[in-house]
């Protein structure tokens, strides 16, 4: 499901023209700023409309109240996260040296939270959880499962319980530092905290999935048709992992 299709299911009226779609986007971006500056309780639809530069009547055409606006922001954030996970869960990234892999992951997550909607949704989850309709602790568990799936190929000898424990520590420690960074007004200090996330994860994971433990089976996968390394996982066939080449569009099964 695309971001727009998921978001549309939450709107009172579906914008049919590009102008209407752009207005919805402006309202959500403006709401993120208002929620960020004033908090959920103090925010009003009138303040959001004013920040978006639109009439309150235009806002009500799409959203009945601020709860609906916030819910749309949740959905927007969820789909961005899902797209991010799909982009990061590739053989190319998993086969990188540990420091480079972690850097790619942390950089991508930091970029995600540069967007005001994702930043506000993440912070509010720890401050005003009762207003959420779609995001709960299951999303954190999904992040843990995703992280665990990245660790498995790097050290197949780890048990599932070990991988899940490592992933849980990585996710919870990273979330705590991300939250601290996002709430800090000092841009330089925020960047320092993000760098510490990278250093922390590398130091923690090195004994378990470091470069010395990277199995020979994790040689960089290449498309047998065009030799590209730009691959994505594409389900299983007869118990074997299938891949889709992003360059030539052909599928193949791993040997």
Automatic annotation (TrEMBL):
It comes from the Bacteria. Keywords: DNA-binding. One of its GO terms (molecular function) is transcription cis-regulatory region binding. Residues 44-63 bind DNA. Residues 1-12 have a biased composition (Polar residues). InterPro entries: Homeodomain-like_sf (IPR009057), HTH-type_TetR-like_transc_reg (IPR050109), HTH_TetR (IPR001647), TetR_C_15 (IPR041669). Residues 21-81 form the HTH tetR-type domain. Residues 1-21 are annotated as: Disordered. PANTHER family: HTH-TYPE TRANSCRIPTIONAL REGULATOR PKSA (PTHR30055:SF226), HTH-TYPE TRANSCRIPTIONAL REGULATOR RUTR (PTHR30055). This is TetR family transcriptional regulator protein. It comes from Tolypothrix tenuis PCC 7101.
């Amino acid at each position: 499901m695309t971001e727009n299709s998921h978001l549309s299911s939450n709107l009172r009226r579906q914008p049919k023209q590009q102008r209407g779609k752009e207005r919805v986007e402006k309202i959500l971006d403006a709401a993120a700023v208002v929620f960020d500056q004033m908090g959920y309780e103090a925010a009003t639809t009138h303040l959001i409309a004013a920040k978006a530069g639109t009439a309150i009547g235009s806002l009500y055409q799409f959203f009945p109240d601020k709860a609906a606006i916030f819910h749309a922001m949740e959905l927007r954030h969820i789909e961005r996260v899902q797209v991010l996970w799909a982009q990061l869960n590739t053989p190319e990234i998993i086969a990188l040296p540990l420091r480079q892999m972690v850097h790619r992951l942390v950089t991508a997550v930091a970029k995600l939270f540069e967007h005001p909607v994702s930043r506000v949704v993440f912070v509010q989850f720890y401050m005003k959880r009762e207003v959420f309709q779609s995001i709960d602790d299951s999303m954190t568990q999904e992040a843990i499962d995703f992280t665990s799936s990245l660790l498995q190929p790097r050290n197949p000898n780890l048990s599932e319980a070990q991988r899940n424990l490592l992933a849980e520590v990585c996710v919870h420690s990273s979330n705590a530092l991300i939250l601290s960074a996002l709430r800090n007004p000092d841009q330089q200090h925020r960047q320092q905290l993000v760098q510490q996330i990278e250093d922390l994860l590398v130091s923690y994971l090195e004994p378990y999935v470091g470069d010395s433990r990277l199995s020979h089976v994790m040689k960089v996968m290449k498309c047998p048709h065009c030799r590209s390394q730009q691959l994505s996982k594409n389900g299983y066939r007869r118990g074997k992992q299938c891949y889709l080449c992003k360059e030539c569009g052909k599928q193949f099964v791993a040997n």
